[in-house]
Amino acid sequence: MKYLIRSVFDFFLPRFCPACKTKLGNQVEVICNNCFFSIQLASKERLQFEYEKKFVHENLISGFYSHFVFEKDKALQHLIHSLKYEKRFQNGYFLGKQIATGLIPFFNEWKIDLIIPIPLHPIKKAERGYNQSYYIAKGITAITSVPYNQKLLKRIRNTSSQTTMTLVERKDNINNAFKASNEKVITCKNLLLVDDVITTGATTSECAKVLLEAGANKVYAASVAIAD
Ligand SMILES: [Zn+2]
C-alpha cells in the first residue's frame, strides 16, 4: 500500500536522489542505493577519538554516538542540505532510523528515558517550516520505541550561524541560548540529545549543561554525522 501511494505521487511529482539527481524508484525512501552506500560510517575508534576531543573535558555528555562521517561535497552533505533547506523532512526520519540501528546496543547500556531534539529558535523554525532534528528523533523513536519530547528544551536566543566560527566563538555564541521548560519531567531522567551534525560539540554541551542543571540524571548525545 505504501509503495502504491508512493508510485501515484512519484508519477505526478517525481522524486530525485538529493546527491546524484537520478530519479528515485517507488521502493526507495529518500536516496538512491549507490549514494547511500557511499556514505562513510563512523568507526568505533573514530567515535572514541571524537568523544575524547569534544566532550570528555567538560564532563557534561556521558556518552556519544554518530552514525556517519560528514564529508564535504559528498552524498551525506546533499542529503542533509535537502533536509534543512529544501523541505525534505522525510530525510530526517530516514536518517533517524539509520542512527537507531547503530544506537540499539548503546541504549541497553545508557537506559535512555527520553529523546530530545536540539531545538531551533522559533524564528528559525518558522523560516524553515520545521525542526530537522525533530524528524531525526522521530526516526529513532520508530525503531527503539523510546519516546521523544520536543517541549522540554527551548531555544531562547536566535544565535547567528556558527559555520565559520572557532570553538571559542561558538561557545560564546551559544552561551545561555537554551532553557529547560519542564523540570518535573526532566528530573532524574537519562536523556538523549539528537542533532543532525555535531562539529565542535559546543551546542550539544550547552544543551546538556541546561538539562543537567534542570535535574537530569545523565545526558547522552547522538547525531547523524560527526564533522571536523
Ligand atoms: Zn544518488
Structure description:
By secondary structure, the chain is of the alpha/beta class. The chain has two domains: 1-38, no CATH class; 39-226, 3-Layer(aba) Sandwich (Rossmann fold), CATH 3.40.50.2020. The chain has helices at residues 2-12, 33-38, 44-54, 75-85, 90-110, 122-128, 132-144, 167-174, 183-186, 202-213, and strands at 64-69, 114-117, 153-155, 178-180, 190-198, 218-226. It has a four-stranded parallel sheet with strand order 1-6-5-2, sandwiched between helices. A two-stranded antiparallel sheet has the order 3-4. Helix 10 (202-213) links the parallel strand 5 (190-198) and strand 6 (218-226). The longest helix has 21 residues, at 90-110. The chain is globular, with a radius of gyration of 17 Å. The model has no long low-confidence stretch (mean pLDDT 93). Zinc ion binds next to helix 2.
